[in-house]
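Budget justification aside, the reviewers requested a transparent look at the raw inputs and outputs of the sequence design task funded under Objective 1. We therefore reproduce one unedited record. The lines immediately below are the structure tokens for a 412-residue chain.
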């Protein structure tokens, strides 16, 4: 699958800082420690509906990771998947009478356009679940060889307790795991399972559903093994960061880490498991299943500047749930206008400190609101100068323009 075009990144003077990032498994903000190549896997969309502000916020979060690492001199190897076959996609296709492949293609196309508009740097490898079925089958075979697979009426399950570290990522007790598993695509109550938390890795063909040949019978992959197989195939382990929204910590990233541990024998699967908080609308998590969505594409079609959408996201720290509001967007539009006026001003305030502050704030667990505040202070200082003679310094405005573009992904 192809990704979307990469925006240019202006080069900045000096050097970026090492990134410290929250890790869900240890619940600590710790330094990331990539080698020359920084390896990150971020869970992609299930393309049955358009990109909403929650998706956008999650991908903008991990875009900052990529930008901070690039600024610090790393070669970033970023892989993202597209869950282009899964229950919700088939259910939506059935509901609307759409062909499931056409639906997935259409929504993936729209997602690419939205990401490009939001200046999100593309992954190096953008990989569909369907095209990964051979890899998925290879990893299921490894799990089977390790004795961690059993069948329920021909469907294959992974014994999560084959991994003695199962539970290490999300840190939940079993009652809570069971509750969330049932809410997020799991089947704890299916008769015949050895343990209610065991997860499906291969589902035999169901009438009317697409299926693929396999040594285990015609069928289709389970969800978690898709990301395990794609990430291990393209990046190996340990990943520097596995990313996604906080709704993926359990079961998705928990199951994925355990599958990877059993399949490869190596631990950890990722050095950091990093999760972006949920974007809500009127206090409710924005989700395709609830239908309370604000779409990036609709805002764009209504003439909203994507840079303002991005700034509305960056005004919130990635680890705190927040509500999308019209007021938040209006504030972002005002901020964008103020910054644009400041970079074009003939007598800009000195800018070196802005670059240093933006770098420092982002390197500290992606404190985007702190970075925005630093640019605000500079824009306000510049505004107060007016056209004051004797202060002309065209390079200050240009430096802030480049810093905001390279590090925050906002074109002024
Ligand atoms: N295809 C799987 C991951 S392998 C999936 O979860 N797809 S998704 O389309 O439902 O979500 C795509 C990404 O957006 C995931 O990282 C998810 O955690 C994140 N996400 C979904 N809803 C929200 C929300 N309301 N706020 C923030 N992030 C969200
Ligand atoms: Zn995933």
């Amino acid at each position: 699958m192809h990704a979307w075009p990469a925006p240019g990144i202006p080069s900045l003077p000096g050097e970026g800082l090492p990134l410290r990032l929250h890790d869900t498994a240890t619940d600590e903000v710790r330094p990331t420690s990539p080698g020359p190549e920084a390896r990150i896997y971020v869970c992609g969309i299930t393309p049955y509906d358009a990109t909403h502000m929650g998706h956008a916020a999650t991908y903008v979060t991990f875009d900052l990771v990529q930008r901070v690492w690039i600024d610090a001199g790393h070669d970033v190897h970023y892989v993202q998947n597209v869950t282009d076959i899964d229950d919700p996609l088939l259910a939506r296709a059935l509901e609307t009478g759409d062909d499931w492949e056409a639906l997935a293609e259409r929504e993936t196309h729209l997602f690419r356009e939205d990401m490009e508009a939001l200046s999100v740097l593309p992954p190096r490898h953008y990989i569909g679940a369907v095209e990964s079925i051979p890899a998925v089958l290879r990893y299921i075979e490894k799990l089977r060889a390790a004795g961690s697979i059993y069948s329920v009426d021909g469907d294959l399950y992974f014994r999560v307790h084959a991994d003695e570290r199962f539970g290490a990522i999300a840190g939940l007790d079993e009652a809570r795991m069971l509750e969330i598993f049932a809410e997020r695509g799991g089947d704890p109550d299916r008769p015949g399972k050895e343990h209610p938390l065991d997860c499906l890795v291969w589902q035999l063909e169901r009438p009317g559903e697409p299926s693929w040949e396999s040594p285990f019978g015609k069928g289709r992959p389970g969800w978690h093994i898709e990301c395990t197989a794609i990430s291990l195939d393209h990046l190996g382990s340990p990943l520097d960061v596995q990313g996604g929204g906080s709704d993926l910590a359990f079961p998705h990233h928990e199951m994925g880490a355990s599958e990877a541990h059993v399949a490869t024998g190596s631990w950890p699967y990722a050095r950091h498991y990093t999760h972006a908080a949920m974007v809500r609308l009127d206090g409710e998590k924005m989700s395709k299943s609830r239908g309370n969505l604000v779409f990036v594409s609709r805002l764009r079609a209504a003439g909203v500047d994507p840079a303002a959408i991005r700034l509305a996201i960056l005004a919130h720290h990635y680890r705190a749930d927040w509500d999308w509001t019209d007021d938040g967007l209006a504030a972002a539009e005002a901020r964008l206008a103020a910054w644009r006026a400041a970079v074009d001003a003939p007598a800009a305030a000195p800018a070196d400190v802005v670059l240093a502050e933006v770098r420092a704030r982002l390197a500290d667990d992606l404190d985007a609101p702190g970075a925005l505040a630093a640019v605000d202070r500079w824009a306000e200082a510049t505004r107060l100068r007016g056209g004051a003679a004797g202060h002309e310094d065209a390079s200050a405005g240009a430096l802030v323009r480049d810093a905001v573009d390279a590090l925050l992904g906002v074109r002024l």
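The chain is about 45% helix and 15% strand. The chain has a mean pLDDT of 96. Computational costs for records of this kind are itemized in the attached budget.
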